[in-house]
Amino acid sequence: MTRPDPSISDLVADRRPGHSLPAGLYTRADVFDADMEIFFRNHWIAVGLECDVPEPGDAYVLDIGKSSLILLRDDEGEIRVLHNVCRHRGARVLNAGNSIVSKLVCPYHQWTYELSGELMHAPHMGQGFDKSCRSLKPVKFVSVGGLVYACLSDNPPEDIDRLIETMEPRLAPYDIRNAKVAYQCDVIENGNWKLTIENNRECYHCLGNHPELCLSFIDLDFGYDPAALSQADRERADAHEARFAEVTMAWEAAGYPSAAVLPRVEGDTNFRTQRLLMNGAGESQSPDTRAACKKLLGTMTDKMLGDVHLWGHNTWNHFMADHAVIATVIPLGPDRTLVRTKWLVHKDAVEGVDYDVQHLTSVWVATTDQDAELVERSHAGVSDPAYEPGPYSEFAETELESFAGWYVRQMRVNGY
Protein backbone atom coordinates (compact mmCIF):
# COMPACT_ATOMS: atom_id res chain seq x y z
CA MET A 1 0.00 0.00 0.00
CA THR A 2 1.32 3.47 -0.94
CA ARG A 3 1.92 5.67 2.06
CA PRO A 4 0.60 9.26 1.82
CA ASP A 5 3.17 11.99 1.40
CA PRO A 6 3.99 13.89 4.58
CA SER A 7 2.51 17.37 4.92
CA ILE A 8 4.69 20.43 4.45
CA SER A 9 4.50 20.97 8.21
CA ASP A 10 5.81 17.44 8.76
CA LEU A 11 8.73 18.09 6.40
CA VAL A 12 9.56 21.32 8.23
CA ALA A 13 9.34 19.54 11.60
CA ASP A 14 11.61 16.74 10.34
CA ARG A 15 14.49 19.09 9.56
CA ARG A 16 17.43 18.24 11.87
CA PRO A 17 19.64 21.13 12.99
CA GLY A 18 23.07 20.93 11.43
CA HIS A 19 21.77 18.98 8.43
CA SER A 20 20.48 19.71 4.94
CA LEU A 21 16.73 19.89 4.40
CA PRO A 22 14.40 16.92 3.89
CA ALA A 23 14.05 16.01 0.21
CA GLY A 24 10.47 17.19 -0.17
CA LEU A 25 11.42 20.76 0.77
CA TYR A 26 13.57 20.83 -2.36
CA THR A 27 11.48 18.78 -4.78
CA ARG A 28 7.74 19.06 -4.14
CA ALA A 29 5.45 21.33 -6.16
CA ASP A 30 3.34 22.28 -3.13
CA VAL A 31 6.47 23.36 -1.26
CA PHE A 32 7.53 25.43 -4.27
CA ASP A 33 4.16 27.18 -4.26
CA ALA A 34 4.54 27.89 -0.53
CA ASP A 35 8.07 29.20 -1.10
CA MET A 36 6.88 31.56 -3.82
CA GLU A 37 4.15 32.94 -1.57
CA ILE A 38 6.30 33.31 1.54
CA PHE A 39 9.76 34.19 0.23
CA PHE A 40 8.99 35.86 -3.11
CA ARG A 41 5.70 37.64 -2.39
CA ASN A 42 5.86 38.51 1.29
CA HIS A 43 9.59 39.25 1.63
CA TRP A 44 11.82 41.90 0.13
CA ILE A 45 13.50 40.52 -2.99
CA ALA A 46 16.19 41.89 -5.28
CA VAL A 47 14.55 42.81 -8.59
CA GLY A 48 16.98 45.09 -10.43
CA LEU A 49 19.19 48.15 -10.39
CA GLU A 50 18.65 51.86 -10.79
CA CYS A 51 21.19 51.72 -13.61
CA ASP A 52 18.98 49.20 -15.46
CA VAL A 53 16.92 52.30 -16.32
CA PRO A 54 19.41 55.17 -16.60
CA GLU A 55 17.22 57.64 -18.55
CA PRO A 56 13.57 58.78 -18.36
CA GLY A 57 11.50 56.34 -20.39
CA ASP A 58 13.80 53.38 -19.78
CA ALA A 59 11.88 50.33 -18.54
CA TYR A 60 12.94 46.89 -17.35
CA VAL A 61 10.37 44.10 -16.84
CA LEU A 62 11.04 41.15 -14.55
CA ASP A 63 8.67 38.19 -14.20
CA ILE A 64 8.57 36.50 -10.77
CA GLY A 65 6.24 33.53 -10.57
CA LYS A 66 2.82 34.72 -11.69
CA SER A 67 3.74 38.35 -11.10
CA SER A 68 5.38 40.75 -13.53
CA LEU A 69 7.03 44.01 -12.45
CA ILE A 70 7.93 47.12 -14.44
CA LEU A 71 10.99 48.95 -13.10
CA LEU A 72 11.20 52.31 -14.85
CA ARG A 73 12.47 55.86 -14.66
CA ASP A 74 9.69 58.42 -15.02
CA ASP A 75 9.70 61.80 -16.75
CA GLU A 76 11.06 63.49 -13.61
CA GLY A 77 13.94 61.01 -13.39
CA GLU A 78 12.48 59.12 -10.41
CA ILE A 79 12.52 55.33 -10.08
CA ARG A 80 9.15 53.58 -10.00
CA VAL A 81 8.07 49.95 -9.78
CA LEU A 82 4.63 49.07 -11.13
CA HIS A 83 2.62 45.89 -11.60
CA ASN A 84 2.69 44.92 -15.28
CA VAL A 85 -1.09 44.40 -15.38
CA CYS A 86 -3.39 46.64 -17.43
CA ARG A 87 -6.31 47.95 -15.36
CA HIS A 88 -8.74 47.15 -18.18
CA ARG A 89 -8.78 43.36 -18.55
CA GLY A 90 -5.39 42.45 -17.16
CA ALA A 91 -3.19 42.14 -20.24
CA ARG A 92 0.56 42.55 -19.85
CA VAL A 93 1.53 46.10 -20.76
CA LEU A 94 5.21 45.44 -21.57
CA ASN A 95 7.13 42.34 -22.55
CA ALA A 96 9.87 40.94 -20.30
CA GLY A 97 13.27 42.59 -20.65
CA ASN A 98 14.37 46.12 -21.48
CA SER A 99 12.51 48.73 -23.53
CA ILE A 100 12.33 52.48 -24.09
CA VAL A 101 8.88 54.08 -23.86
CA SER A 102 7.39 57.55 -23.83
CA LYS A 103 4.09 56.22 -22.45
CA LEU A 104 2.97 52.83 -21.20
CA VAL A 105 0.53 51.59 -23.84
CA CYS A 106 -1.28 48.30 -23.41
CA PRO A 107 -1.11 46.57 -26.82
CA TYR A 108 -4.51 44.90 -26.35
CA HIS A 109 -6.89 47.89 -26.31
CA GLN A 110 -4.42 50.79 -26.23
CA TRP A 111 -5.15 51.97 -22.72
CA THR A 112 -2.35 54.47 -22.20
CA TYR A 113 -0.57 55.34 -18.96
CA GLU A 114 1.90 58.03 -17.97
CA LEU A 115 5.29 56.79 -16.73
CA SER A 116 3.95 57.55 -13.25
CA GLY A 117 1.34 54.82 -13.84
CA GLU A 118 -1.55 57.27 -14.12
CA LEU A 119 -4.16 56.31 -16.73
CA MET A 120 -4.40 59.11 -19.28
CA HIS A 121 -6.32 57.55 -22.21
CA ALA A 122 -8.93 54.76 -22.35
CA PRO A 123 -10.67 54.85 -25.75
CA HIS A 124 -14.40 54.24 -26.09
CA MET A 125 -15.10 53.91 -22.36
CA GLY A 126 -17.81 56.60 -22.31
CA GLN A 127 -18.20 60.04 -20.76
CA GLY A 128 -18.86 58.73 -17.25
CA PHE A 129 -15.72 56.61 -17.04
CA ASP A 130 -13.46 57.63 -14.12
CA LYS A 131 -9.79 57.25 -15.13
CA SER A 132 -8.53 58.40 -11.72
CA CYS A 133 -9.10 55.03 -10.05
CA ARG A 134 -7.52 52.96 -12.85
CA SER A 135 -3.83 53.76 -12.52
CA LEU A 136 -1.33 50.91 -12.75
CA LYS A 137 -0.83 49.46 -9.30
CA PRO A 138 2.42 50.51 -7.61
CA VAL A 139 4.79 48.02 -6.00
CA LYS A 140 6.49 48.82 -2.70
CA PHE A 141 10.24 49.15 -3.24
CA VAL A 142 13.43 50.57 -1.78
CA SER A 143 16.72 51.46 -3.40
CA VAL A 144 19.71 50.32 -1.38
CA GLY A 145 22.74 52.08 -2.78
CA GLY A 146 21.26 51.65 -6.27
CA LEU A 147 20.11 48.04 -5.76
CA VAL A 148 16.32 47.86 -6.07
CA TYR A 149 14.43 45.59 -3.66
CA ALA A 150 10.67 45.15 -4.00
CA CYS A 151 7.96 43.47 -1.94
CA LEU A 152 4.72 42.29 -3.52
CA SER A 153 2.91 42.28 -0.19
CA ASP A 154 0.92 45.22 1.15
CA ASN A 155 2.66 44.61 4.49
CA PRO A 156 6.38 44.19 3.77
CA PRO A 157 8.82 43.28 6.54
CA GLU A 158 9.83 46.38 8.49
CA ASP A 159 13.41 45.27 9.12
CA ILE A 160 14.51 46.32 5.62
CA ASP A 161 15.88 49.39 7.44
CA ARG A 162 18.76 47.26 8.74
CA LEU A 163 19.82 46.42 5.19
CA ILE A 164 19.55 50.06 4.11
CA GLU A 165 21.49 51.39 7.10
CA THR A 166 24.21 48.75 6.65
CA MET A 167 24.70 48.94 2.90
CA GLU A 168 24.20 52.61 1.99
CA PRO A 169 27.53 53.68 3.52
CA ARG A 170 29.30 50.57 2.20
CA LEU A 171 28.09 51.14 -1.34
CA ALA A 172 28.36 54.93 -1.45
CA PRO A 173 31.95 55.06 -2.83
CA TYR A 174 30.98 52.72 -5.70
CA ASP A 175 28.05 54.94 -6.79
CA ILE A 176 26.13 52.00 -8.23
CA ARG A 177 23.21 54.32 -8.99
CA ASN A 178 25.38 55.90 -11.70
CA ALA A 179 27.13 52.78 -12.96
CA LYS A 180 26.13 51.03 -16.18
CA VAL A 181 25.48 47.41 -17.13
CA ALA A 182 28.39 46.30 -19.29
CA TYR A 183 27.12 42.75 -19.78
CA GLN A 184 24.27 40.46 -18.72
CA CYS A 185 24.18 36.67 -18.68
CA ASP A 186 21.16 34.43 -17.97
CA VAL A 187 21.69 30.81 -16.88
CA ILE A 188 18.93 28.31 -16.12
CA GLU A 189 19.97 25.96 -13.34
CA ASN A 190 18.17 22.61 -13.26
CA GLY A 191 17.62 22.64 -9.53
CA ASN A 192 15.57 24.14 -6.72
CA TRP A 193 16.23 27.77 -5.81
CA LYS A 194 17.32 26.81 -2.29
CA LEU A 195 20.06 24.58 -3.73
CA THR A 196 21.22 27.56 -5.81
CA ILE A 197 21.42 29.74 -2.71
CA GLU A 198 23.02 27.02 -0.57
CA ASN A 199 25.68 26.43 -3.22
CA ASN A 200 26.51 30.13 -3.23
CA ARG A 201 26.66 30.43 0.56
CA GLU A 202 29.59 28.07 0.96
CA CYS A 203 32.99 27.79 -0.65
CA TYR A 204 33.69 24.29 0.64
CA HIS A 205 33.35 23.25 -3.01
CA CYS A 206 35.40 26.08 -4.52
CA LEU A 207 38.90 24.62 -4.68
CA GLY A 208 37.68 21.53 -6.50
CA ASN A 209 35.33 23.29 -8.90
CA HIS A 210 36.18 26.97 -9.45
CA PRO A 211 39.80 27.35 -10.59
CA GLU A 212 39.14 30.77 -12.15
CA LEU A 213 37.45 32.22 -9.05
CA CYS A 214 40.02 30.75 -6.68
CA LEU A 215 42.75 32.90 -8.20
CA SER A 216 41.25 35.86 -6.34
CA PHE A 217 39.50 34.08 -3.44
CA ILE A 218 41.47 33.29 -0.29
CA ASP A 219 40.42 29.79 0.79
CA LEU A 220 41.04 30.47 4.49
CA ASP A 221 38.20 33.03 4.52
CA PHE A 222 35.62 30.33 3.88
CA GLY A 223 36.30 27.96 6.76
CA TYR A 224 38.78 25.24 7.68
CA ASP A 225 39.34 22.59 10.34
CA PRO A 226 42.26 23.81 12.47
CA ALA A 227 43.01 20.28 13.68
CA ALA A 228 43.51 19.11 10.10
CA LEU A 229 46.20 21.70 9.28
CA SER A 230 49.90 20.97 9.14
CA GLN A 231 52.21 23.19 11.15
CA ALA A 232 53.06 25.18 8.03
CA ASP A 233 49.38 25.60 7.11
CA ARG A 234 48.55 26.59 10.68
CA GLU A 235 51.20 29.31 10.53
CA ARG A 236 49.82 30.46 7.18
CA ALA A 237 46.29 30.60 8.62
CA ASP A 238 47.45 32.56 11.67
CA ALA A 239 49.35 35.01 9.48
CA HIS A 240 46.32 35.52 7.24
CA GLU A 241 43.97 36.08 10.16
CA ALA A 242 46.34 38.65 11.68
CA ARG A 243 46.74 40.44 8.35
CA PHE A 244 42.99 40.38 7.68
CA ALA A 245 42.22 41.86 11.10
CA GLU A 246 44.85 44.56 10.60
CA VAL A 247 43.64 45.47 7.10
CA THR A 248 39.99 45.49 8.20
CA MET A 249 40.83 47.97 10.96
CA ALA A 250 42.67 50.14 8.45
CA TRP A 251 39.75 50.05 6.01
CA GLU A 252 37.33 51.01 8.77
CA ALA A 253 39.60 53.83 9.96
CA ALA A 254 39.76 55.16 6.38
CA GLY A 255 35.96 55.36 6.24
CA TYR A 256 35.19 52.10 4.43
CA PRO A 257 32.85 49.93 6.56
CA SER A 258 34.16 46.38 6.31
CA ALA A 259 33.36 44.21 9.33
CA ALA A 260 31.00 41.26 8.93
CA VAL A 261 27.29 41.87 9.47
CA LEU A 262 25.63 38.49 9.96
CA PRO A 263 22.10 37.27 9.18
CA ARG A 264 19.49 37.18 11.92
CA VAL A 265 17.77 33.81 11.98
CA GLU A 266 14.92 35.41 13.90
CA GLY A 267 14.62 38.33 11.47
CA ASP A 268 12.68 38.57 8.23
CA THR A 269 15.11 40.24 5.81
CA ASN A 270 18.01 37.81 5.51
CA PHE A 271 21.38 39.21 4.41
CA ARG A 272 25.09 39.00 5.16
CA THR A 273 27.89 41.36 4.17
CA GLN A 274 31.64 41.64 4.67
CA ARG A 275 34.63 43.17 2.92
CA LEU A 276 37.22 40.49 2.13
CA LEU A 277 40.78 40.59 0.91
CA MET A 278 41.48 39.24 -2.58
CA ASN A 279 44.35 36.96 -3.54
CA GLY A 280 46.97 37.41 -6.25
CA ALA A 281 47.38 41.06 -7.21
CA GLY A 282 44.38 41.70 -4.96
CA GLU A 283 42.59 44.16 -7.25
CA SER A 284 39.70 42.33 -8.88
CA GLN A 285 38.00 39.05 -9.76
CA SER A 286 39.60 38.90 -13.18
CA PRO A 287 41.80 36.31 -14.91
CA ASP A 288 44.96 38.07 -13.71
CA THR A 289 43.41 39.42 -10.45
CA ARG A 290 44.15 42.96 -11.62
CA ALA A 291 41.55 45.64 -12.35
CA ALA A 292 39.54 44.68 -15.44
CA CYS A 293 38.33 48.25 -16.01
CA LYS A 294 40.70 51.20 -16.11
CA LYS A 295 38.00 53.65 -15.00
CA LEU A 296 37.14 52.83 -11.39
CA LEU A 297 33.62 52.91 -10.02
CA GLY A 298 32.21 56.01 -8.36
CA THR A 299 34.75 57.89 -6.29
CA MET A 300 37.08 54.93 -5.89
CA THR A 301 40.79 55.67 -6.23
CA ASP A 302 42.33 52.69 -4.41
CA LYS A 303 42.25 49.33 -6.21
CA MET A 304 43.23 47.49 -3.01
CA LEU A 305 39.99 47.91 -1.07
CA GLY A 306 39.02 44.26 -1.42
CA ASP A 307 35.68 42.76 -2.35
CA VAL A 308 32.48 43.80 -0.58
CA HIS A 309 30.23 40.74 -0.51
CA LEU A 310 26.47 41.04 -0.08
CA TRP A 311 24.29 37.95 0.12
CA GLY A 312 20.48 37.81 0.32
CA HIS A 313 17.92 35.06 -0.10
CA ASN A 314 17.65 35.70 -3.86
CA THR A 315 20.87 37.57 -4.62
CA TRP A 316 24.63 37.70 -4.24
CA ASN A 317 26.88 40.63 -5.10
CA HIS A 318 30.56 41.52 -5.32
CA PHE A 319 31.70 45.15 -5.31
CA MET A 320 35.29 45.87 -6.30
CA ALA A 321 37.02 49.13 -7.16
CA ASP A 322 36.84 48.53 -10.91
CA HIS A 323 33.54 46.67 -11.35
CA ALA A 324 30.67 44.94 -9.61
CA VAL A 325 29.01 41.57 -10.17
CA ILE A 326 25.28 41.42 -9.37
CA ALA A 327 23.37 38.11 -9.40
CA THR A 328 19.60 37.76 -9.05
CA VAL A 329 17.90 34.41 -8.40
CA ILE A 330 14.37 33.86 -9.77
CA PRO A 331 12.66 30.48 -9.19
CA LEU A 332 10.96 29.11 -12.31
CA GLY A 333 9.72 25.82 -10.89
CA PRO A 334 10.58 23.25 -8.21
CA ASP A 335 13.55 22.12 -10.32
CA ARG A 336 14.39 25.19 -12.44
CA THR A 337 15.98 28.46 -11.35
CA LEU A 338 17.06 31.51 -13.34
CA VAL A 339 20.38 33.09 -12.32
CA ARG A 340 20.72 36.51 -13.95
CA THR A 341 24.20 38.03 -13.62
CA LYS A 342 25.11 41.62 -14.48
CA TRP A 343 28.57 43.19 -14.63
CA LEU A 344 28.65 46.90 -13.77
CA VAL A 345 31.31 49.45 -14.65
CA HIS A 346 31.58 53.24 -14.36
CA LYS A 347 28.93 54.88 -16.54
CA ASP A 348 31.64 56.70 -18.54
CA ALA A 349 33.81 53.61 -19.10
CA VAL A 350 34.19 52.82 -22.81
CA GLU A 351 34.18 49.25 -24.07
CA GLY A 352 37.37 48.45 -25.97
CA VAL A 353 39.14 51.39 -24.35
CA ASP A 354 38.63 51.02 -20.60
CA TYR A 355 37.58 47.36 -20.52
CA ASP A 356 37.31 44.23 -22.60
CA VAL A 357 34.02 42.39 -22.04
CA GLN A 358 35.51 38.89 -22.20
CA HIS A 359 38.26 39.78 -19.74
CA LEU A 360 35.77 41.54 -17.46
CA THR A 361 33.27 38.67 -17.35
CA SER A 362 35.17 35.43 -17.87
CA VAL A 363 35.69 34.53 -14.19
CA TRP A 364 32.03 34.70 -13.21
CA VAL A 365 30.79 33.31 -16.54
CA ALA A 366 32.88 30.22 -15.87
CA THR A 367 31.89 30.13 -12.18
CA THR A 368 28.17 30.40 -12.94
CA ASP A 369 28.34 27.60 -15.52
CA GLN A 370 30.23 25.43 -13.04
CA ASP A 371 27.67 26.18 -10.32
CA ALA A 372 24.82 25.29 -12.67
CA GLU A 373 26.31 21.81 -13.10
CA LEU A 374 26.75 21.43 -9.33
CA VAL A 375 23.17 22.50 -8.61
CA GLU A 376 21.86 20.05 -11.22
CA ARG A 377 23.87 17.26 -9.57
CA SER A 378 22.54 18.25 -6.17
CA HIS A 379 18.91 18.34 -7.33
CA ALA A 380 19.27 14.93 -8.96
CA GLY A 381 20.66 13.62 -5.69
CA VAL A 382 17.98 15.03 -3.38
CA SER A 383 15.37 13.59 -5.76
CA ASP A 384 16.81 10.09 -5.38
CA PRO A 385 14.95 7.78 -2.92
CA ALA A 386 18.35 7.02 -1.35
CA TYR A 387 18.84 10.64 -0.25
CA GLU A 388 18.76 11.50 3.41
CA PRO A 389 19.80 14.87 4.87
CA GLY A 390 23.54 15.02 5.47
CA PRO A 391 25.56 16.92 8.10
CA TYR A 392 27.00 20.35 7.46
CA SER A 393 30.67 21.04 8.05
CA GLU A 394 30.94 23.02 11.29
CA PHE A 395 33.90 24.86 9.76
CA ALA A 396 32.97 25.43 6.11
CA GLU A 397 29.15 25.38 5.98
CA THR A 398 28.04 27.57 8.87
CA GLU A 399 26.16 29.87 6.49
CA LEU A 400 24.09 26.91 5.30
CA GLU A 401 22.96 26.25 8.85
CA SER A 402 22.06 29.93 9.21
CA PHE A 403 20.06 29.90 5.97
CA ALA A 404 18.28 26.62 6.73
CA GLY A 405 17.42 27.80 10.24
CA TRP A 406 15.98 31.04 8.84
CA TYR A 407 14.04 29.18 6.15
CA VAL A 408 12.49 26.76 8.65
CA ARG A 409 11.57 29.58 11.04
CA GLN A 410 9.88 31.53 8.26
CA MET A 411 7.91 28.45 7.21
CA ARG A 412 6.73 27.95 10.79
CA VAL A 413 5.81 31.61 11.23
CA ASN A 414 3.66 31.27 8.14
CA GLY A 415 1.72 28.29 9.42
CA TYR A 416 3.91 25.37 8.46
From TrEMBL:
Keywords from the UniProt entry: 2Fe-2S, Iron, Iron-sulfur, Metal-binding, Oxidoreductase
Span of domain Rieske: 44-150
GO MF term set: 2 iron, 2 sulfur cluster binding; iron ion binding; oxidoreductase activity
Cofactors demanded by this protein: Fe cation
Listed CDD domains: RHO_alpha_C_GbcA-like, Rieske_RO_Alpha_N
Gene3D superfamilies for this protein: Naphthalene 1,2-dioxygenase Alpha Subunit, Chain A, domain 1 (3.90.380.10), Rieske [2Fe-2S] iron-sulphur domain (2.102.10.10)
Superkingdom, taxonomy of origin: Bacteria
Protein name per the record: Rieske (2Fe-2S) domain protein
Annotated organism of origin: Novosphingobium nitrogenifigens DSM 19370
